[in-house]
Each structure stands twice: as structure tokens, then as C-alpha cells.
Amino acid sequence: MVDMLKAGMIVASVAALMTGVATPVFANDPYGYRDSPVLLVSPEGDLLDYTPERGEVVISRDRLGRRILLDRGGNLIATEVPAESYFPRQREARAPVPYDDYGAPRPGWQDDGIVTGTIPGPGVIDRQPLNEPLPDMPSGGPDMAPPVDQAPTRTVTPKIPVKSNLSQLEITALQAFLDREGASPGVIDGKMGQNVNKALVAWQQMTGETIDPNNAEDILERLRLSGGLAITAYTITPGDAAGPYVAAIPEDYAHKAQLPALSYTSTAEMLAEKFHMDEAYLRALNPGVDFTIPGTIIKVVAPGQPKKGEVARIVANKGLKQVFAYAADGALIAAYPASIGSSDTPSPSGTVTVERIALNPGYTYNPKINFQQGTNDKILAIPPGPNGPVGTVWMALSKPTYGIHGTPEPSKIGRTQSHGCIRLTNWDATELAKMTKPGVTVEFVD
Question: Peptide bond before 244: cis, by omega within 30 degrees of 0?
Fold first, then answer.
């Protein structure tokens, strides 16, 4: 609440400083939205906590045309940004919202950022006979075929009613809280759905508490105690903008094998995963932003630190499409939405064990044990990267060709079915892998 009051006072102060005309402070709302035009944001992305005297600063413009405040030594004190862009909220009679009534991004919200790298042209591919598997690379089973976009066969958790005026930012706050608590909602996108419902149920199992997803004040207070508001400012670094990136990820595995790495395709894609976000939602929160420019301040979700602990048992619930990680004492450490098998290519049944764990793994394509992809009939060494077939993690199970792994398409987790393995978002798979050791049991339940 202090930050929200401060924002209101700064809005008035900015107007007075820039124009010499006093501006009234507008009433606060629970998420800090303001009708007044501008705020002063420090180079660290925070609201400036004081009002500079007019004679102490030089008013200039940066290369994006934004007004900036410099001290007499030429050092940046603050950048003027629109209040609505810093505290976004969808309301009637505002600028068009980034999503249509069906949740799809509206035209014009896409960013055409420049990326580095390209897809190599035709060249020699390192192929080996089918009876010579490549060392230290996962060679997944039928799950490595393209995802099955099948609708869930049943609703596994009760629908939680959402009041009609619940904003996208309020839902984001709930998702961020659950993510911080270890009850992953998958990608944070500001939308209610089964992944959020399942995370709520899992959080209640972890804590013995209940939470009303429609009580915005309670969620805000819980967020404050767990690390602050859901949306924070982030400055794009030169390393973020540099990559390396690739122009696109080809469908053909032979072309994949030619790339040096299956890297991200843009700064926006990388940042979305870094902050556990849906990429379209990241772009919508930052309309018109060029993510390739270092020093650009953007709004991102603050998901919190990875869960810590030692996992003794993993349960993959095929009906719930959810993975549960338990400690030795039976306490639930974390829960993750997952894509787990389908009726055509089911996951294993019963109990298996984790045999080995690889971070940032390459992948061995073998048509004899995987699937026939295009005209590829030889073993291919697919390079590692977040856009690889198994994402950033491979946890091999004792049942051959099956594993727990990441994915290049995090927004589909829990919403589509897999081809037998257990797919998680890259960040959830990494968190789980770092708490798990070989020998941990994995139980598949219906």
C-alpha cells in the first residue's frame, strides 16, 4: 500500500516538475492503476522515492524519445514512463486489450525483434548406423513425436467460480503466489483454468490452508509476505539481447541436427521462460517494446526462488495431468502441471525409478525406437537447447525410452496429451531435477 500511495504522489510530482502545473493525486485502487499520465522510474526499475528539485536536474530525452532526468554530472536519475504501462489493467473505455474474447493475442501486439543466428543450409549430417546409439544423450520413446493436441477426457478438479470483474492482473497475482509456493500453475498468463485450479488444490494439501481466489486483498497480502507484488520491473541486459539466438527451429530433425544448438528464437522467448510467463502475455504487458535493446525497462512477473528440498518419491497422476514431489516424511514439496500420455500412447503403469538426470541434454533420434520423422531413417544427434525435443532436462526412467523432461512449448503443458513421457515446463523440470537423485521412485497412477 505504501508503494501505491507513493506512486500517486509521484504522478502529481512528475506533472509539476515537467509542466510546472500541479496535478491532483487520484484515488488508489488495489493494483496501483492510475488515470494520471506519467511516473518517474529509476534505472533499477523502481519508482523514484523522492521528487527532484527543478534546479537540481537536467531534463533530456533518451534514444527512444522518452523524457529523462539527469543530474549535473550527466548520470541518469529517472525515466518518465506512462503510468498505465507501469501499472497495466484492463478496463472499459481504455486502449484495446491485448487478448480477444477467446484468449488469443490481438493483431498488433507481436514484436518483430531482430535475432542472431540462422538455419544452416544443406550440409553433412553426422549419421550413425541404427545399432550404434550415441553416448550420454537421451533417446526418448514415443513421446518424442509431435504433441497430441487432444482435449482432456474429463474434468478432474471442480471449477472455482471467478467473479465477472476479476482482472487479468488479479489472476496473475494468484498465479505468481502459487508459483512461489511450489504449487506450479504452469505458464503465468493471467487466465484462470484447470492448471490454476489444480495448483490451488495442491497448495491446500501442502499447507492445510484454504485460499479464496476471488479475494484480491488476501492474495495481495500473501504476495507481500512471499516477496512483493506479482509484477516487477526488469532492465534488459546486454547479455539478454546478445543471445545466442536462432532465427527459427526447423521441423525436420535432420535440419535440427545441423544447428549448433536449439536455442531460443528471440529475447522475448528467453525472458518469458526466465520469468515463468506465457510469451504472448509478456509482449502484451509491454506493448511496442523492442526487446533487443539493452537498458530497456520492461514489466515481468516476479516468480520467486526455486523450491529446495530432497525428493524421495514422485507421483505422476495421469488423470489429473499433474506431478507431485514428496519428501521422505511424506510431506508434499511441490506440484507441477504435466502432459502425461494419451489413450493411444499411454504412459507406463506401476512404479519405476529415476536412473539418471541430465541438464541441458542433447537428444538421440533413433527411428527404430522412437518414431519415423519425415524421411529420416538414420540415428541423428540433436543438439541441446531449450527448444530441443526434451527441453532443458532429461530424467531417464528405469522403463526404457521413458523419462521426465522439459518442453519447447510451455504453454501447452497440462492442456495437451503426450506420447508417453512426462512433460513439464523447462523451469518446473529443472526445479524437480535439482531436488531429485537417481533411485527415486516414480509411481504412475490413474
Answer: yes
For cell 502529481, the residue is 12
Strand order in the sheet with 76-82: 38-41, 76-82, 67-70, 58-61
- What is d(CA 437, CA 327) in angstroms, rounded to the nearest whole number? 12
Q: Return the pLDDT at 400.
A: 85
Q: At what angle do helices 168-181 and 194-207 cross, to 10 degrees?
A: 40
Catalytically annotated residues = 405, 421
**Residue 274 pLDDT greater than 60, yes or no:** yes
Q: Which three cell numbers stand for residue 388?
A: 530441443
| Partner residues linked to 404 by β-bridges | 395, 422
**What is the DSSP secondary structure assignment for residue 236, as one 8-state letter?**
P
pLDDT in tens, 7-31: 444 444 444 455 443 333 333 333 3
- Measure the CA–CA gap between 232 and 32, rounded to whole angstroms: 12
pLDDT at 370: 65
- In this prediction, residue 365 has a pLDDT band, given cuts at 50, 70 and 90, of confident
List Cβ neighbours of 213 (8 Å cut-off, separation of 6 or more): 160, 162, 174, 192, 196, 200, 219
Closest CA to 364 of 352, 350, 380, 353: 380
> Which CATH number is 127-228+305-445 given?
2.40.440.10
Which element (helix H / strand E) includes 199? helix 194-207
Query: What is the grid cell recorded at 278?
Result: 506465457
Yes or no: say if 237 and 297 are a contact pair by the CB < 8 Å rule: no
Sign of CA dihedral 282, 339, 145, 362: positive
Average pLDDT, the chain: 75
Task: Name the band, by pLDDT with cuts 50, 70 and 90, for residue 329.
Answer: very high
What are the boundaries of each domain within the chain? 2-86, 127-228+305-445
- State how far the Cα of 376 lies from the Cα of 119, in Å rounded to an integer: 18
**Contact (CB, 8 A) for 230 and 301:** yes
The grid cell for 246 is 536462432
Identify the residue whose cell numbers are 481504455: 94
Q: Whole-model pTM above 0.70?
A: no
Rounded distance between C-alpha atoms, residue 296 and residue 288, angstroms: 12
The residue-averaged pLDDT of 32-39 equals 49
Residue 426, pLDDT > 90, answer yes
Q: Is the pLDDT higher at 108 or at 310?
A: 310
334 in Cβ contact with 431 (< 8 Å): yes
Query: At residue 376, does pLDDT exceed 60?
Result: yes
Of 64, 69, 76, 90, the residue nearest 289 (C-alpha): 64
How far, in Å, CA of 144 to CA of 9, rounded?
Answer: 55
Residue 37 has a CB neighbour count (10 Å cut-off) of 15
